[in-house]
Amino acid sequence: MNSFFCVSELNASYGDLQVLWGIRFEVSPSEIVAILGGNGAGKTTLLRSIVGLHRQRSGQIQFEGEDISLLPPHLLIYRGLAHVPDERGIFPDLTVEKNLIIGGYSIRNSQKAASALAWIYQIFPILRERKKFLARSLSGGEQQMLALGKGMITRPKLLFLDEPSSGLSPLMVQRLMGYIVKIHGEGTTVVLVEQNVRHALQTAHRAHVLENGRIVLEGQSMDLMNDPRVKKAYLGG
Amino acid sequence: MILLQQILNGIVIGAMYSVIGVGFTLIFGIMRILNFAYGEFYMLASYAAFVAYSELHLPLGVVLILTMAVLFAIGVVTEESLVKPVRERTVDWSVPVIMVTLGLQIVIQNVVLLIAGGTYKGVASYLSGSLDLGWVVISYERLLILGVSVLLLVATWLLIQKTKLGLAMLAVSQNREGAVLSGINLQRVYAISFGLSAALVAVPGVMLMPLLYVYPTVGHVPIMKAFAVTLLGGMGSVEGAILGGFILGIAETLSSAYISALMKEGVAFAFMILILIFYPSGIGPYFQQVRQKVIRS
Questions:
Q1: Residue of B170, B182, B295 to mutate, interface with A, max A Cβ within 10 Å
Q2: By the CB < 8 Å criterion, does B184 face chain A?
Q3: Is A34 part of a structural domain of the chain?
């Protein structure tokens, strides 16, 4: 087993309550993989367990052939692994630019950091326009752009996105998915956790369906979209 | 001219209050805790200054730098040895950590009482003479206090706004997980912040020693000021603490000159309550709003 990214036998609990049961999945380089499921399925806990923000867990998490489950979470970004959490991970009382600069904190060379900032502004022109604004004053969609920009500024090899579409208008979700494809085109592998099954399946190549803390279904997005169980449970018949 | 003189005196003492407030608010902003042993850091600095200046006869500049270095180390060690173990054992560590600092306050006081005794110690003054500008008079010592404070406040502001460490501190103060995910080592930021906070309050500890003397419980004076200044400025706001310090200093001096010296603290704290009624989260956040409006317009 020497894949790009692979999780095996991952269990996670809150106190006595076990919420993830023997999760296993793999991600190949330059894929977009979706993890789908309803409220309380364990999607957020899964990502938090992978990046080490949730510590009460067991199992193997391997990235580029190395077990990263014991690594302190602040070191992951130096390995090329970034995570955009469900509350977006931004700094509300700092300006957009300061947010992005902090996003690039792990870039040691200041020249590289400056060009990374310029690159993010090129992908998300709205962030350049808003660079002097406090993050809290942005609209929900703009905040999500900022969260994506902050997550992307280090050009991670693997990016985890925790429900980026939440709280956004349908039009904004459409644009967001476009940005995710664009990010992927820049050479980043994406693991997308979503409740918005239709959009996620349109964006991702493969998907896993999480129910009550277990992966119950997996396959190519195309196949899942036509799967009667998925249709019935998530796509409204 | 008396009014002008009083305002000047208020600015000088207010500058010290600002430094006291900034050190206190720094820890609140970054760790969301109140450090009840803060006054004891001041007290230790005062004793260190007393020994270094009056018994070892070191020059004031050396005393100041040495005391700051020692207090920085004490702050870091306090975080690493007493606060960190509590933080690592629970997720909701704010209240337990506050209780640890409260306990530490009493322990330090008692240990110092045992070693140094309860008598007041002090030096007459670091500098003599004064500068007469005709309309106001300012002693060289007060001028020195003002200069050192302003230098320190500017240095702290630059550290926070212009350095990578400051960037990490700002990030942690707003969103811990967001900071971790950006590659910031929380433990390092907490330890350094504790050290910086202690090093900041070391300066008033040295500079105010001739005025307040030093004894095991002298820490209650600065910690009360720290509370007032921090609440006035808005918890966690460095700019607010700087402003709050000057407001408190001027309010105290004016009320002692025009009302009664006995009522000095009473009036100043009544004034603080009054401001909080109108600006419940302090004046710092209000000024931030104004600044944003200026930027956008």
A1: B182
A2: yes
A3: yes
